[in-house]
């Protein structure tokens, strides 16, 4: 007896097209292939040849700061402006307001096919542990629909914001899953280096992975934005290959090709992952350019070609850092494709991997991930029949399955009325 069987699911673009059945029991995929028609199941969904992916993963999302754009926009449009505006709004955070905004976006993400979110709540003397505590609470209250990993994120810096170190320790004691870092938001290079040492020491002490915002600038004229190599060195020193992720890394795109290749090579050797955040990076980057405005997105193709574990994510949804977004990994995937010259069917496969299998590795959840027997039954059924069309179509997420349970569905009908349908008088 299965809990759920997905019939006629398309899992590749083989020619001629073929489909498989996916049988689920106890929250785990029990069989992929031909499930006998008379197999007993509590629920059956007919995918009718539609594409099925493993659940999408948002590897980097600031749920605590989402949906702040209507309260106070970022008039300057810069990173400094975004930090300032958000710092002002953070003073008014209460558990109730953070919970309401975060839960709204979390549910959007689920409806859009996401089954795991790594959330980065601010931990600093302004917000205290308000965002962190709300995330820990949402991790429990929403665990049937989405896995939430909580990163203790020192947005205001550690050295620059006294008290943050103690708050980070307390966050990890309370159950944060990951220690965060924000190297660029320190006053000078020495402080940035001490920031890195602190983050890795906390990762050692609490036995957690590290996830740092790094090198978030148009270029590396300011040495605080050229720290990817230093973080790669620290990763090796602390034996943390495969357990360190960097968000943004936009300044890398502006380095000379040989220098860029050397940094990318170091990231690959050290086992440091990169998460591109194109919606934010495009919006905040290149603000000083008066001609040939930079795209400001990390060089995704070069990272992938060099074997750096690379993902992407929404980062922010409708706030001073990014006044756009729906917590939709396919929408951001299309944006990434368009801005990184990733336009071929093979490139689409790379982007789908970044949103699924690579993101699972980045979040350390790959051991039981995928569409195969034994994997956790996190799946999304898309209203399209070719994987190559997934980004361009951004199809309806017809059903979203979390540990074998349908947690979201989308049904809608669109008709072109070409005169055959009687019009109301
Ligand atoms: Zn971020």
UniProtKB/TrEMBL annotation:
Keywords: Hydrolase, Metal-binding
Entry-linked SUPFAM superfamilies: Composite domain of metallo-dependent hydrolases, Metallo-dependent hydrolases
Amidohydrolase domain sequence ranges: 86-408
GO molecular function terms listed in the Swiss-Prot or TrEMBL record: deaminase activity; hydrolase activity, acting on carbon-nitrogen (but not peptide) bonds, in cyclic amidines; metal ion binding
InterPro entries: Amidohydro_3, Metal-dep_hydrolase_composite, Metal_Hydrolase, Metallo-hydrolase_Enzymes
Coiled coil spans: none
Pfam families, per database record: Amidohydro_3 (PF07969)
Keyword check for Hydrolase: yes
UniProt keyword Transferase, yes or no: no
Protein name per the record: Cytosine deaminase
């Amino acid at each position: 007896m299965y809990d759920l069987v997905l019939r006629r699911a398309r899992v590749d673009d083989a020619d001629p097209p073929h489909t498989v059945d996916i049988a689920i029991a106890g929250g785990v995929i029990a069989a992929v292939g031909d499930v006998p028609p008379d197999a007993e199941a509590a629920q059956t969904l007919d995918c009718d040849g539609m594409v099925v992916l493993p659940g999408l993963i948002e590897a980097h999302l600031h749920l605590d700061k989402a949906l702040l754009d209507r309260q106070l926009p970022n008039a300057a449009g810069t990173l400094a402006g975004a930090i300032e505006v958000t710092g002002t709004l953070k003073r008014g955070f209460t558990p109730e307001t953070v919970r309401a905004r975060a839960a709204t976006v979390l549910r959007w993400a689920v409806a859009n096919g996401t089954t795991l979110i790594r959330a980065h709540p601010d931990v600093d003397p302004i917000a205290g542990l308000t965002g962190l505590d709300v995330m820990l609470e949402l991790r429990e209250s929403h665990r049937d629909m989405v896995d939430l990993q909580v990163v203790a994120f020192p947005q205001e810096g550690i050295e620059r914001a006294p008290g943050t170190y103690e708050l980070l320790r307390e966050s990890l004691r309370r159950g944060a899953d990951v220690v965060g870092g924000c190297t660029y938001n320190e006053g000078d290079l020495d402080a940035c280096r001490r920031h890195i040492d602190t983050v890795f020491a906390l990762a050692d002490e609490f036995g957690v992975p590290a996830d740092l915002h790094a090198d978030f600038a148009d270029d590396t004229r300011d040495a605080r934005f050229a720290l990817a190599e230093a973080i790669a060195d620290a990763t090796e020193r602390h034996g943390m290959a495969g357990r360190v992720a960097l968000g943004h890394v936009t300044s890398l795109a502006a380095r000379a090709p040989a220098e860029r290749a050397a940094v990318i090579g170091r990231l690959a050797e050290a086992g440091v992952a990169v998460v591109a955040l194109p919606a934010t990076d495009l919006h905040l980057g290149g603000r000083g350019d008066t001609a040939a405005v930079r795209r400001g997105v990390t060089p995704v193709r070069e990272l992938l070609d060099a074997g750096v574990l690379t993902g992407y994510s929404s980062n922010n949804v409708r706030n001073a850092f990014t006044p756009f977004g729906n917590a939709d990994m396919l929408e951001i995937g299309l944006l990434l494709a368009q801005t990184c010259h990733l336009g071929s069917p093979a490139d689409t496969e790379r982007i789908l991997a970044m949103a699924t299998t690579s993101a699972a590795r980045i979040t350390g959840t790959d051991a039981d991930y995928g569409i195969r027997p034994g994997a956790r039954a996190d799946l999304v059924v898309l209203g399209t029949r070719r994987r190559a069309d997934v980004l361009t179509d951004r199809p309806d997420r017809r059903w979203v399955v979390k540990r074998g349970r349908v947690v979201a569905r989308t049904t809608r009908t669109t008709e072109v009325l070409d005169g055959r349908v009687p019009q109301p008088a």
